[in-house]
Amino acid sequence: MKWTEQHIPRQDGRVAVITGANTGLGFETARRLAERGAAVVLAVRDTGKGRQAAARINGDVSVRELDLTSLDSVRAAAADLRTTHPRIDLLINNAGVMYTPQQTTRDGFEMQFGTNHLGHFALTGLLLDLLLPVPGSRVVTVSSTGHRIRADIHFDDLQWERSYSRIGAYGQSKLANLMFTYELQRRLAAHGTTTAVAAHPGVSNTELVRNTPPFARRLITWLAPLVTQSAAAGALPTLRAATDPAVLGGQYYGPDGLAEVRGYPKLVSSSPGSYDLAVQQRLWAVSEDLTGVRFPVGQSAAVA
Length: 304
Fold this sequence. Notes:
The chain is an alpha/beta fold. It has one domain: NAD(P)-binding Rossmann-like Domain (Rossmann fold, 3-Layer(aba) Sandwich). It is 39% helix and 12% strand. The chain is built from 9 helices and 8 strands. The protein has helices spanning 24-35, 47-55, 71-84, 111-131, 166-188, 214-227, 231-234, 236-243, 277-291; strands at residues 15-19, 39-44, 60-65, 90-93, 138-142, 195-199, 252-255, 265-267. Strands 3-2-1-4-5-6-7-8 form an 8-stranded mixed β-sheet, sandwiched between helices. α3 (71-84) runs parallel beside α4 (111-131). The longest helix is centred in the middle third of the chain and has 23 residues, at 166-188. The relative contact order is 0.15. InterPro entries: NAD(P)-bd_dom_sf, SDR_fam. Belongs to the short-chain dehydrogenases/reductases (SDR) family. GO terms for molecular function: oxidoreductase activity. This is NAD(P)-dependent dehydrogenase, short-chain alcohol dehydrogenase family. Keywords: Oxidoreductase.
């Protein structure tokens, strides 16, 4: 079966919070969920751009400020959402940065790790109790095929203070997204209502490449018709992970084409290292310490 937007079930009565939803993959995800009847919250850093995006979407759409580079902003956004939405059906951790020059978040974390992983880790922990009572609720986190490239969790230098690599730091952050999803799913299993799922968009033509070095960016632009797909197509794996009734917790969805570059969404596998339970659990503990956020779900089974 070629899964398309036509397979998205009606979402009437459901609330979907999507980070980074004013452009690219997040916008396309928000647009389609709203068209299917969901009440969609665009959680974005620039609320002006968020309102412009909301005006282009038909349906129930609101905008909330969220800057994932600041834990204070994450806490404020979570508190705001708690006052306006007593329940959440879908939390889609979509926002991200890629290949940024060496810089830190407001809390001193390496920008890619802090934004892509720690910001979403904290947001999920602060909102999870609004999902747990809701049957069929899901946390969908967007990873990347980049999790396979020079990727490891560098516990001895998580913030890349010794020697910075744009590619390595991005790979670490996207690997962390997957490990977070897998560990979260084990912790959610006992509750039986909420599931954690991951997705990746293949190679999609979005603003995410803006920090790519100039030569590589020109090459990507030249090859775009051959090796990329539109943001609308790139959003399909996320939409399937969020809405397909057959999806199970702990699964990972990506394009079905060669090397998962583009195509229709299907169930895919992540790198062998991403399934390392000991590393997943260590990353979880470190993430709790760095963010100060504790989840309202128990510890998963210990690793022998």
